Amino acid sequence: MKDFRRYLVLKYIQYLILSSPNSISTFLGLLGSLYTMVTLQSAKVSSKSTTVFISSLAKADLLVSISIVLEVLMWTFGDNVSSMMFSPALQQNLLTANTHLSCLLLSCIALEAYLITFFPTESRCLRTVRNARLTSRVIWVLVATECVLLQGDDLLQASTTPALQSSPYLWLFHLSSLAAALLRSLSYLLGILLRIVNVYFYYKIFFSMSNR
């Protein structure tokens, strides 16, 4: 659990403290996720709701690995890959999905720590492995839907032609763009809210432990 705590501290710094990702934090995060995924395979690690969230958090960095592979392909093959696969937009959307997944999963872990500290008995029925797996799946589905929507909007923006402008389905194009813009705004506000909520949770936990 000490290793898991260090990993969580690293992830909190990477996603909820730093204003933007950088190469050092990304590299350390990938190494931490790789080590965590290997450690979770050990029979000594008990199956708890917290470990379920930590496992999903580590798996979220697979999206970062895919984005790095895309960047290498773009650098190796140049514009041919970029124009064919829309790699720049896909790479950015994968990184966005990774950030949103990580922030939501870290918030779930913070909420669980808050419940354990202040409502250990009352929240026991909620803090189950089954509920943690269900919550993780819901988060993955929501973020995957967001990624698909944003990628679809980027593809439509890249393939805009005069024929499309006169198409009877033009309203679908505008609707998709509006939905993507709204989603980006909501994601920004949600990110700020999650930071505030996490600070509150750990502020309460810290002073509760200090008083004891």
From TrEMBL:
Cited InterPro entries: GPCR_Rhodpsn (IPR000276), GPCR_Rhodpsn_7TM (IPR017452)
One of the Pfam families matching this protein, by short name: 7tm_1
Gene Ontology annotations of biological process type: phospholipase C-activating G protein-coupled receptor signaling pathway; positive regulation of Rho protein signal transduction
Subcellular location: Membrane
UniProt KW keywords: G-protein coupled receptor, Glycoprotein, Membrane, Receptor, Transducer, Transmembrane, Transmembrane helix
UniProt topology in membrane: Multi-pass membrane protein
Keyword Transmembrane: yes
A Gene Ontology molecular function term of the record: G protein-coupled receptor activity
Main localization of the protein described in the UniProt heading: membrane
Recorded GO CC terms: plasma membrane
Transmembrane segments: 12-36, 57-77, 97-119, 171-203
Domain G-protein coupled receptors family 1 profile: 32-212
Alphabetical list of PANTHER family matching this protein: G-PROTEIN COUPLED RECEPTOR, GENE 5127-RELATED
Protein name: LPAR4 protein
